[in-house]
Amino acid sequence: MFKFVHKRNFEIEFKTKMMSKIHVLIIAASALLVFSCNQPQNQKSEISENPIITQLKHVKGEGILFGHQDDLAYGVEWAYVDGESDVKRVTGDYPAMFGWELGGIEQGWDKSLDTVPFETIKNLAAKAYGMGGINTFSWHPYSVINDSSSWYTDSVVVKHILPGGSHHKEFLKDLQAVCDFFNDFKTVEGEVIPFIFRPWHEMDGTWFWWGSELCTPDEFKQLFIMTVDYMRNQGLDQMVVAYSPDRKFNNEEEYFTWYPGHEYADILGVDNYWDLGQPQGWKTAIEKLHIVINAAKKYNKLSAFTESGNYMAQDTVWYSQKYGAVFKDSLVQAEISFAHVWRNEKTAGYYFPYAGAAADDAAKFLEEPYMFLLKDFNKAKASNK
Ligand code: BMA
């Protein structure tokens, strides 16, 4: 079993009135040396970081993990073909990150709202883990207030599902279904599989019932905290949490408007489709990522471009020249951990090109040495820095 301990920042204040700064430094350094020499080895091993965090830190600056939603389950021209993947068809390799959707699990459905059976998700995600990949999960639940989808924005929901709210208990049943899924997400040998959970994303937008027009920042934070606390109390220590607003912020303060606090987020992300659809929009996308990166650096978090994609390959040079332009930026290359694009579905729309000129363009972008597919990621993990 893993034992994960969340790191906290320790601050030490030195009183400098009576002593010179150099004097203080010498004393502090000697004290640290004596302290660390006296620590028994087993005390260190108790603090073990989540393996996803360790891996992402290890490859940071070397490569950005490319991710794709539902990649192993279906593509535009196929579904449930063992070993198949649109990213692999186009590039010759699997993505390094695999995204999955849990919406519908709270309804007691066998399949997600994107029609993938939950058992299949579990098996394919375990397979992805076995191949060396990282899994990230989103959840677009129906609301317990009106039994409508995440995209139904005619009713206030959040405040009613918080502790003390009229539908709190009902919501916890929904959350329990998510916990049950993760508690059963293991390898065939019964090993717990670490995963990223990215709940309540794009809250700064207005298209979800947890969006900015239907709850206050404080209510949203309570929702996020309640969700993560509940899941951690279920023993899901293998979970890494991502905070992932849409692109509607212009500075760090705005970025953190909905932030639940450092204890509740390991990865600072941003979803951004919009800017990359605008002329020169990649410049804006970089600006947004810089805000995320600088915040992550300040608070010792990882940063990620948590969602994007080009709808139906409408722009055949989007991958190399729009999205691709973002990752040419040196700060982005040095700091961003992963870049995830949305699913490939024929009628709902695909976001990674599966054939033709746009697919060649995506392949070209993914040949960049700093974009990691699965083999690149596995190779980098194996190397000692
Ligand atoms: C959206 C679309 C929907 C899908 C939802 C949840 O962006 O792809 O078709 O149901 O995400 O995955």
Draw up the topology in text.
Blueprint: H1 21-38, H2 41-45, H3 51-59, E1 64-69, H4 86-91, E2 97-101, H5 118-131, E3 134-138, H6 158-161, H7 168-183, E4 195-197, H8 217-233, E5 239-243, H9 252-255, E6 267-271, H10 281-298, E7 302-308, H11 318-328, H12 330-335, E8 336-341, E9 344-345, E10 349-350, H13 356-366, E11 371-372, H14 374-382
Parallel strand pairs: 1-2, 1-8, 1-11, 2-3, 3-4, 4-5, 5-6, 6-7, 7-8
Antiparallel strand pairs: 9-10
Helix pairs in contact: 10-11, 11-13
The structure holds beta-D-mannopyranose.
Beta-D-mannopyranose binds next to loops.
Total strand count, please?
Answer: 11
Unreliable stretches: 1-22, 24-45
Helix-strand pattern: HHHEHEHEHHEHEHEHEHHEEEHEH
| Distinct helical segment count | 14
Q: What is the CA–CA distance across the termini?
A: 27 Å
Helical proportion? 25-40%
Helix/strand/pairing category: alpha/beta
Radius of gyration: 22 Å
Strand content range = 5-15%
Q: How much is the average pLDDT? A: 91
* Biggest pleated-sheet summary: 8 strands, parallel, barrel
Q: How do the strands line up in the largest sheet? A: 1-2-3-4-5-6-7-8
> What general form does the structure show?
globular
Bound molecules: beta-D-mannopyranose
